[in-house]
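Hello again,

I reread your note about wanting to compare the complex against the isolated chains. To keep things tidy I'm splitting this into two emails, and this first one only covers the full assembly. Below are the input lines as submitted, including protein chains and any nucleic acid or small-molecule components. They are followed by the predicted structure of everything together. The single-chain runs will come separately.
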Amino acid sequence: MLEETLFSMTMPYRQDMKIKSFSFGVTPDGRKLGGDGDARACADEFEDAACFVAGIRGNEVQQTYICARIVRKLRKLEAQGAITAGKRIMVIPCANPASMNNHKRFWVGDNTDVNRMMPGYSLGETTQRIAGALFEHVKGFHYGIHFASFYLEGDFMDHVRVMSGPGIQTDNGADFGLAYVSKHVPGSFDTTTLHYNWRLWDTEAYTLYTKETDLVNDESAASMVRACLRFLDARGLIDRPCHGGMRATTFSERGLVAVRVSRGGIFRGVSDLGDVVSEGALLAQVLDPLRGDVLEEVRAPEGGVVFFACRTPLVNEQTLAFQLVPRRIRKEQPDERGNFLDPEA
Amino acid sequence: MIQVVSSYQMAVDEDLEVIKNRLVPEGAAFDDLETLPRIAIVSGIHGDELEGQFTCFEVARRINEHPEYLTGIVDIYPALNPLGVGAIYRGIPQFDLDMNRVFPGKNSASPFESMAADIVADIAGATISLDIHASNIYLRELPQIRINEVSEQTLMPWAMESNVDFVWVHGNATVLKGTLAYSLNALDTPCLVVEMGVGMRLTREYGEQLADGIFSLMRKAGIWSGPVAKVRRPIVSVDGEVGFVNADAAGVFMPEVKHDGRVGKGQVIGHVLDAATGRVLQELTSPADGLLFTLREYPIVYPGSLIARVLAMSSSEGVN
Ligand SMILES: [Zn+2]
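Full-complex prediction:
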């Protein structure tokens, strides 16, 4: 394993911010990235095969944790000789440690979003410089996997998100063996994300979403690590017996059924993430916060699986309470305006 | 007359309301209102930008003083993001979300998207509209109007009459699509974006300067028959003529120039200081002879923090 500091920046009244990467690779004659003396291999002897990035936002702690577990796992696989010769796998568990140490989603200095600054600009503003340095190092990989998060206050089922364009369309999100693959049609606000820019530079890109963001969940992390190993195995980058996971259901994001509340109040969920519900099933109640009366019973407009569930205890009129994957997956719908309730918005 | 433009129920016994004040000519019949020219004066999309507050006040005050000159409709929307304005919060509280990325919005979507759609529907059809911003808490701006090049033909005649110091025409590629101005211009409702002053503060002379400009626009639109102040002729620029000065050190920025006009090429704009050691970490100079229209206000800087923007000009240009 080769540990490197990809980028370092001076900060007012605190230590320099460093973005670290961990690279794995073995040559056919057994030399390793980060090896000692004669056993050392150089990065340019390898094909840049797969890159994992997390923690571009400072609150994406679960995402960083997953990558840290991937680093640990790859170290083990490297020791066992299970990484395919000539392929480099790089992991950047935390691209924004300064914001993470502040427990803050966006940049500590000016509240801008580093994942809205790709591909970055080395002479520009602070977050453009961070984005630029990061992208410089992650571009050119064959496969790019970004662990990101939704800003919505709620939980999503673990899933893979792929984008319809730009660039190559060789992606197959089903290779992760997670239950769902969502297909996203990019809007104008997508053009400055890592995923989009990876695609522009011909990287086969995936974004992985996990149930938690600012909390650590071991079960979900373990399932994500397994999914990533399964993907690496499917692409021939590691040699490790992996179970097949799940046969993924792929759907267009616009085919999700949005369920909104029609009253403001206290939100009391009844259905859980992953529940299979039939039409008319009770999903939640909205309660009068002062009198305790039930103001509204939120019901499923059609049968399906609960894919997103609101977690905030307080809701406004029209707040998105649930998203269901309908039982009957709709065909791709004709292009409409990108949804601002897009996770990356 | 105060009217509610959009209203949504929040959780605990309160509706979130966006309001406007509608001023109409004395004795105008309700049925005639549709046919009258109308100006929409908008502020407070970013809750920490307050310079528009005084402009709104000043416009309303002057009309109240001389209602007999009003020949069209004036709609004043002082706070499109009321929760943010009340909470010293740039985005939409509850979410860390920039309201000026939500337009044109969508009905029956989230409350904030619906609210954006209500606002666009209410302003659409105005003869002219202004969206007044105040930079942010980091930078101070000379009164200026920013225009997307695709709307240049429609907007420039208005911008030239609005009494700002300069007009900056942006390339379409750098323009954000989720803004109120973009959405209105796409609906053929001309919308000027004004940037002036600095976040969280009020600058009286800028407020008065823009109020003079608004009366000039109202006169041009047939909304005001009273006297108006003579407007200044703004300097017009395109992207390529603007030079940026960014910090490369982290520390405390101390300006060495006043934010009121000309700088020479190589002139010291300010320094980045190390407070603990008394050392100067970086000296920042102007990249060109020209108009210093943006100057950093907030002292703490990181590598990359914007310090100044200078519009390159020869010394004879732009003399008002
Ligand atoms: Zn603003």
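For quick reference: Residues B 46, 49, 133 surround zinc ion (CB under 6 Å).

B.
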